Amino acid sequence: MRKLLVFTVIAALLMGALVGCRSAGTPATSTEKNKPVTNDPYKLYLESNLLEDYSTQRLEHDVIRENHITVSSDIPDKTVTLFGQTITLSYKETWQSNRRTRNLLFYDVRDNQTGALYWAGFDSASGALRIYYNSQAGNDRSYQSEVNEHASEAEFLAYAKKLVSQYASVEGCAVEIETRFYEYKEQYGYYGQTGVTVDGYVNNAENIPDFYAVYTFTFYKTIDGIRLWDTNTIEINNTGEVCQAEFYLQDDVYEDYFDIDIDIEQAERLVHSACNGEIVRTRLVATTDGALWLHFMVFWGIEGAGSCNTYAIPIVGGI
Asked: Residue 264: phi, psi to the nearest 5?
């Protein structure tokens, strides 16, 4: 009986060891429905730097910013009403991005009366507006909207949400506000940037009669506390006119990833092992191959004489 018991214990230990060895060499599987499997351990890739002298494997392409531009001959003009402006746009080119925002069809037109240049990008599949730009926004200081140079931060934020909601969702988003200051250039006859930008909402209209500023509202989401690269952003001047907008945040692109866990400490250790610099930005981005990437911008050197490296780690899928 004792020999049988000893044999049973040894067999159980051996079986446990075999199971442990097998699980160590087998990719992890998700036990939760639709929850993607994350890569473990992480692997770091160098996306771009100046010296290219690090041992990190170099990516063959830019994960986020690379676009392939093509031109089609059979896409007609497009008449649309955007932010209260009805304009007829002419097709210019198609952008095919590594990011999962599908192809973008770009159009532009110049208003012969005002000289304003409008350009816009639309999702080639859904037709949804993704990018908008008005070069002359702010030149008409008598522009009337729901807000004006005396409106409060809360009023401007509510106005920004209303405008963005016409084209994209802001539900469940956090928001950042940035103020960019301008001054009137008499020799040119328009308002030019001062080069000063501050975080938050600033309104000096009470003290400066010709005060002019542009407010940037960035609506964003996070996964496991890390910001997504894709955001919904709108720039509005202090008379309420829309200068430009970008609507890239799409929940359907990221919906499978919102519940995953990310080992940010492991990721940051890999970055610091490749470059002894300061991580100045961390973002998550989904790409066209169905992968989710953790993207780092790292500053190295001294202020005014340094540079930035960018690194990418595939969290789900990828390389």
From this structure: -70, -30
